[in-house]
Amino acid sequence: MSPLLIFIGLASYFLILLSIGYITSKTAGEDGYFLGNKQSIWWLVAIGMLSDSMSGVSFISVPGNVFAAKFYYMQVVLGYVIGYLVIAYILLPLYYKHNVTSIYSYLNTRFGTIHQKTGALFFVLSRLTGSAGRLFLTAAILQKFLFSQWDIPFVVTVAFIIGLILAYTIKGGIRTLVFTDALQSLFLVGGLVVCIAIMISKTPSVVNQGAFHVVVDSELSQIFNFNFWQKTFFLKQIIGGMFLCIAMTGLDQNMMQKNLSCKSLGEAQKNMLTTAGVVFFVNLLFLSLGIFMIEYLKSVDPALLDPNHYADKKVLTDMFFPHIALDLLGPIAGMAFVLGLSAATFSSADSVLTTLTTSTYIDVLGIDSRDDLTIEQKHKRRVMLHIAFSVLLLLAILVFYAFVKTTVINLVLDIANYTYGPLLGLFTLGIFTQANPKGWGVLVISLLAPLICYLLVNYIAKDAKYQIGYELLLINGGLSFVGYYLLHYFQSKRLLER
Q1: d(CA 175, CA 307)
Q2: Alpha-helix residue ranges (DSSP H) falling in 202-330
Q3: Which of 171, 211, 217, 403 gives a 20 to 30 Å CA spacing to 446?
């Protein structure tokens, strides 16, 4: 596909987003930036959460990963569905009851300031690295198929993308994102459907047998793995997926802020249940695309199924889909791919700038509660934070570019297993116990638990027959929970002895 056509499609897409950002931000004050004036339409939020949940990682890595891991990712998705139910009926009522803007304000109410700052800092670390990984993948693809053709350096590509995202989010915040993310979800699904339709029409085996039968009859469409010792054992992945969803959605300000902008708890719950159903079926569609890609490559050139065929060996199967869509299927599929990938990626990247700003503004720095600052001064600090996180996101992406040597979906979920564990432990302690550990020991335990998990995976159990998979988040959260509870126990015992 011509680089000029890719650029025209991308530029047109961003003009639409900038127009929406301009219109919605005209009536968006500080309350509009943080919570959309509590007037967000629940079904628009639900549509937008699809692109937030999927991201460019899903658009690229999930179909490509079928080549190595079959349909086992659906086990994780089944866990997601259970996780969405927990969020809808346990976490959302809690957040609405306390009328929070940042969900980590609950930790302050339940425990104290140190706990709130600890939760917020782990969110900032989790989201900044996770979003950098997601945006890195898209930037790498655009660099390969577009900007490198014009000898534009990768750092300029990333800066250009982040600059455009900054332009349409810096004023409107959540009020803008509710509309732009909904639009981007439609582009994501539309781009996916168009690519699948064109690919099927050009694949003789799929045309002859029918798309449904090709998927069902493929040895790669196996969903459940019953080998207990492997990382993809079904119980590990379902349970791991459930806790990943609870942590990465329910305990994540980025995913919850738009939910909190709904008019009522009931509407937020309807949004969450709708999201669960949509995420399930769209992921099934992504995995089916993986089989269609393999069938298509078999008919074009079986050698293309060898990852060593690709010059950029860092991302391996992550390059299957973009190579097919942009080099082989023609301009219509290429444009659909660019728009779908852009929608999937920029939705998660644009919202993260707003929510990182929100959490730092409220939880870490406490600017919202400072009486010594005027509204104008608070606004200026909020804008400066938004810009600062844009720069940090750029730097994090450059680090990924220098060191990433695996499929990005595995990398993003690996990061989540380490960084969301303390959040899971803190919220579980607050909701289900009366314990209240005090002091900086909370932060120490929050750092020790992920460190122990890292040592467990990379040194202690490295050569063991049992392979630790997504259940690592549960182990991490469990260690954090036990550590917090023991800290409370010994602190209480010391007080009684006095």
Answers
A1: 43
A2: 204-209, 211-217, 234-245, 253-259, 265-300, 320-323
A3: 403
Phi then psi for 53, rounded to 5 degrees? -75, -35
Domain spanning 3-408: which CATH class is it, in words? mainly alpha
- With tokens 């999937």, the residue in question is 344
Q: Which amino acid is at 124?
A: V
Structure tokens at 498: 């006095």
402: enclosing H helix or E strand? helix 375-403
Question: How many of the other CB atoms lie within 10 Å of CB of 195?
Answer: 26
**47-to-178, 187, 189, 191 alpha-carbon distances in Å:** 9, 11, 11, 15
Q: How many C-beta atoms lie closer than 10 Å to residue 438's C-beta?
A: 14
Find how far residue 38's CA is from the centre of its chain: 24
Place of tokens 């959260």: 477
The one-letter amino acid code at 327 reads: D
Distances (CA, A) of 308 to 303, 314, 316, 319, 392: 9, 10, 8, 11, 33
Helix (H, G, I), strand (E, B) or coil at 262: strand
d(CA 408, CA 316) in angstroms, rounded, equals 10
Q: Which residues share a beta bridge with 262?
A: 40
pLDDT score, position 404 = 62
Q: pLDDT tens digits for 238-278?
A: 988 898 889 888 888 877 877 787 778 888 898 888 888 88
**Geometric angle at alpha carbon 99, from 93 and 105, rounded to 5°:** 100
Residues 406 and 395: their CA atoms lie apart, in Å, by 19
Specify the DSSP class assigned to residue 103.
T
Q: What is the DSSP string of 172-216?
A: TTHHHHHHHHHHHHHHHHHHHHHHHHHHHHT-HHHHHH-HHHHHH
**Phi and psi angles of residue 40, each rounded to the nearest 5 degrees, phi first:** -70, 140
Assess contact for 315 and 140: CB atoms under 8 A. yes
Return the closest-CA partner of residue 143 out of 488, 374, 401: 401
All structural domains of the chain with their residue ranges: 3-408, 420-498
Digit-coded pLDDT (tens) for 303-358: 666 656 544 444 456 667 777 888 888 888 888 888 887 777 676 666 777 778 88
| CA 247 distance to own-chain centroid | 11
